[in-house]
Write a structure and sequence with these properties.
Radius of gyration: 19 Å
Number of strands: 11
Low-confidence stretches: 8-12
Strand order of the largest sheet: 1-11-6-3-2
Structural class: alpha/beta
Helix content: 25-40%
Oligomer: single chain
Distance between the termini: 20 Å
Number of helices: 8
Largest sheet: 5 strands, mixed
Strand content: 15-25%
Length: about 290
């Protein structure tokens, strides 16, 4: 489902004049890491199935914000007036270049930063927004309100300390250090047991009340055609947030509010049909 929430309108030249409604936009969609490699030195292998990435010489984290900046004139020449990009928040979990497995809603993923470390992911995203606006192109940001990934979330349930040095991002043990919450034996147990332990911290799967603030829904199954889809878990990598919880809602609004302040022109809201109707209305009118 595509839902666009417009934050501002621009009229800097003929290209952007009279565009006050997103129905007047011609929108170019991209998965940033698969679009264009503007800074080859910041390429990073995904920690899953690295042999195939090496063999094909195609690291999962290859395209970047610099690549989008480099192609702004190309996109404009095609007649597009806006760019819709996949989620940019810090992610974790295998092939996560699509951005739908958030582990920190507050920051842009470190794998988008400059290769020399002079510009963080947040700074690079700001540069993209500013340079797109200078050419009369709007930025639509894909955002997720319904779920996190299964590696916890920095504020709601911190399970890992993330090392953001670019060189460490190809190796999960180098860039993600388990916190005491996961137990001293976490790194020695089988991957399936690691996954279960992470999920337990958010969904109380062992019968203990670990998610004491009820930041996540603890219900696993759902039906596509009934209200249970609002609190059931879509998939193992999409741990369903309790968006009816006012603390969760405020946190998400605050985090994405920062992106509005950066100049993002609109949101495409992912999995909106899995958010309860009452909470959906409250999000949209803020």
């Amino acid at each position: 489902m595509l839902i666009l929430i417009s934050m501002q309108s621009m009229a800097t030249d003929v290209f952007t004049s009279n565009r006050t409604d997103f129905r007047d936009e011609s929108i170019y969609f991209m998965i940033t890491t698969r679009f264009y490699d503007g800074d080859p030195k910041n390429n990073v292998l995904c920690w899953d199935n690295q042999a195939a990435q090496i063999e094909t010489k195609d690291p999962c984290w290859r395209g970047d914000f610099q690549g989008v900046i480099d192609k702004l004139d190309y996109i404009k020449a095609l007649g597009f007036t806006a760019i819709w990009i996949t989620p940019v928040v810090q992610n974790a979990s295998g092939y996560d270049y699509h951005g739908y497995h958030a582990m920190d809603f507050q920051h842009v993923d470190c794998r988008y930063q400059s290769s020399d470390g002079s510009k963080s992911g947040d700074v690079m995203f700001q540069e993209l927004i500013d340079k797109a606006h200078a050419k009369g192109i709007k930025i639509i940001l894909d955002i997720v309100l319904n779920h996190t990934g299964n590696f916890g979330e920095e504020k709601l349930c911190k399970l890992f300390d993330r090392n953001t040095q670019l060189r460490n991002q190809a190796y999960i043990d180098a860039c993600m250090t388990p916190t005491e919450t996961l137990g001293s034996d976490y790194l020695t147990i089988l991957p399936k047991d690691q996954y279960h332990r992470r999920l337990t911290m958010m969904k109380n799967m062992d019968g203990q009340n670990r998610d004491i603030h009820n930041y996540w829904h603890h219900y696993g199954q759902f039906g596509w055609d009934d209200p249970s889809r609002w609190w059931g878990q879509i998939a193992g990598d999409c741990v369903d947030l309790n968006t009816e919880n006012d603390e969760v809602a405020k946190y998400l609004v605050d985090c994405y509010g920062q992106f509005i302040k950066m100049g993002v022109d609109g949101f495409r809201i992912d999995t909106s049909g899995h958010i309860s109707q009452g909470r959906r209305i409250k999000y949209f009118i803020r």
